[in-house]
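To whoever picks this up:

The nightly regression suite flagged NADPH-dependent 7-cyano-7-deazaguanine reductase QueF as changed. Nothing in the input moved, so I suspect the structure step. Input below, exactly as stored in the fixture:
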Amino acid sequence: MSAPTALLKTIANARPGLQTVVEHVLHLPELCPASRNPAPGSTLTLRYAAGERLLELFSLDTYIDAFVGHPVVRDMELFVQTVAQDAANAAGVEVTATADVRLNRVRQGQRVTVVAEPETGEAG
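Regenerated output under the current build:
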């Protein structure tokens, strides 16, 4: 969908025969310079049963940072949908992405959960 996709890398799973569930808990930066959302304390959790590939930690941080001030991905729902799909495509497995978002200028938070399957031809 966007240039950040190319930033998301994987590494080989050294023990793919072992049932392994991975959760990445990312502390989200301020993505929107206008609203200053999400507010500090917001997180995005990516959860998946490991297959042949694992999401690489450092590229995951770089990938998320690429959405700061993004011209297309401007709301949290689309952000979580995009990250879930890109992560599923990269890892080649189903990924559940859950954002727990604190928001500025409203008296509410938001939880967005997306389950994404890898799209054919895009894993790895």
